[in-house]
Amino acid sequence: MWFKKWKEKRKARKSKRAAINMNETSRDIQSPPETRYTEDYKEYTEKQYGGAPADNSIPLREMPSGEETKNEVTMDNNINVAALQNLLGRRSIRKYDTERQVPKELLHAVLLAGQYAPTAMGKQSPKIVVVQNKEVRDCISEMNDEVWGRGIDPFYGAPTIIVVFADSNIPTYVQDGSLVLGNMMNAAHAVGLGSCWINRAREVFQTEKGKELMAKWGLGENYIGIGNLALGYTVGDGPKPAPRKEDYIVFDE
Ligand SMILES: Cc1cc2nc3c(=O)[nH]c(=O)nc-3n(C[C@H](O)[C@H](O)[C@H](O)COP(=O)(O)O)c2cc1C
After folding, report:
1. Which of 8, 157, 189, 218 could pair with 96 as two cysteines, CB 3.0-4.6 Å apart?
2. What H or E segment, with its residue span, contains residue 27?
3. What superfamily does domain 92-232 belong to in CATH?
């Protein structure tokens, strides 16, 4: 089976990896281009809010206060500010504690949030595969990097990988699977875990190796990889959010 051969080849791959300057590489991982904006962010928040929030959260400046609203919806009663702050405060994490596995109860909270994502016509087209077995986790990481071609762990050391598939017989399978991933990322943040959507699930699980893994998990070829989730405990503070585009929202009033 390819998995055994893969294990044998692993040593060779490791020495190839050693040839890469890992220090330089991990610095790249921690601050990919989209997260190198701390200065911009500072300037932006100075202008917008009079200063960057110390706790990496975003002020809910758009939320109505009690006085501003006529319909008596205030921050104190009907609005779940904590839930909104959770959505605003989640970031993509690119450095994980490799030694600290995600505990079962937190994992289940994340999975439950995924299961309860909306799906078109309630068809529940996605499947969620949780990988905590280190050998399988490393194997998926290498398969992903074979597509990516950067010679690094695309999962940034996260000890848990969750792969979301969806049934391509359902026309909305991509949207359904994407919402599952979105829910899980937000839930991860809510329970104190870091996460990051990692691309290339489609390509990885269309390879022979990928198909073998899918067969092992009981997934037919009608299932397509929508996305992977790196999940684990964050090392460091995580990145700051990028300023939003000025014309992100269009109102037609
Ligand atoms: C469809 C999709 C694919 C992504 N793929 C990757 C990926 O392969 N590697 C990665 O480090 N981040 C990936 N991300 C994370 C984005 O880079 C990240 O969401 C974006 O930079 C905004 O940062 P934030 O999530 O912290 O707000 C992906 C996000 C999405 C939605």
Report:
1. 157
2. helix 22-30
3. NADH Oxidase (3.40.109.10)
For 31, the token pair is 């601050």
Q: For the chain, where are the E strands, in sequence order?
A: 126-131, 160-167, 194-198, 223-232
Q: Which tokens belong to 150?
A: 């950067």
Q: State how far the Cα of 54 lies from the Cα of 126, in Å rounded to an integer.
A: 38
Report CA(103)–ligand 1 centroid distance (Å). Answer: 24
Detail the DSSP E strand segments found in 146-208: 160-167, 194-198
Helix (H, G, I), strand (E, B) or coil at 17: helix
Q: Where are the domains of the chain?
A: 92-232
Q: Which of 178-192, 216-230, 234-248 has the lowest mean pLDDT?
A: 234-248
Question: CB under 6 Å to ligand 1: residues?
Answer: 34, 91-92, 94, 196-199, 227, 239, 241
Q: Which structure tokens are listed for 203?
A: 């390509």
Closest among 206, 205, 209, 196 to 238, alpha carbons compared: 196
**CA–CA separation, 101 vs 183, rounded Å?**
21
Q: How far is CA 32 from CA 40, 111, 207, 208, in A?
A: 15, 28, 28, 31
**For a pocket test of ligand 1, which of 92, 144, 150, 181 has the largest count of ligand atoms closer than 8 A to its C-beta?**
92
* Integer-rounded Cα radius of gyration of the chain: 20
pLDDT of 30 higher than 80: no
Q: Which of 23-32, 148-157, 182-191, 206-215 has the lowest mean pLDDT?
A: 23-32
Rounded distance between C-alpha atoms, residue 1 and residue 243, angstroms: 48
